[in-house]
Design goal:
Elements: E1 3-7, E2 10-13, E3 18-25, E4 33-39, E5 46-51, E6 58-60, E7 68-73, E8 78-83, E9 92-99, H1 106-109, E10 117-118, E11 122-127
Parallel strand pairs: 2-11
Antiparallel strand pairs: 1-3, 3-8, 4-5, 4-9, 5-6, 7-8, 9-10, 9-11
């Protein structure tokens, strides 16, 4: 059984940075793509970023391009999301998810049903 545990959330002022981590256990990490999604109060869950199992490809929502960077360390079974230039509209619960996505098209990485396993989430609050 795959388990995902997020960490690194918190309260930060606008313009600041946070680094989220997603610790993976239970299966062979390198055979799973990992994505980050977020959900703000009263809003639907939205895709933030993803990284393919091979580390070759990364994907970002337009709203975070140029500000967020996703990376993975297959030796440590961990994915990081470096978030810079944070804005109040980035406030949300951020969850990581893992799935066996073999496609190279970004569409599939945006789709929650492609991810079989989800973490509990970590709160990110950006004050203005």
């Amino acid at each position: 059984q795959v388990q995902l545990v997020e960490s690194g959330g918190g309260l930060v002022q606008a313009g600041g940075s946070l680094r989220l981590s997603c610790a993976f256990s239970g299966r062979t990490f390198s055979t799973y793509a990992v994505g980050w999604f977020r959900q703000a109060p009263g809003k639907e869950r939205e895709f933030v970023s993803a990284i393919s199992m091979s580390v070759v490809s990364t994907y970002y929502a337009d709203s975070v391009k140029g500000r967020f960077t996703i990376s993975r360390d297959n030796a440590k079974n961990t994915v990081h999301l470096q978030m810079n230039s944070l804005k109040p509209e980035d406030t949300a619960v951020y969850s990581c998810a893992a799935g066996r996505i073999y496609y190279s098209t970004s569409y599939y990485y945006h789709q929650p049903p492609q991810y079989a396993y989800w973490g509990q989430g970590t709160q990110v609050t950006v004050s203005s």
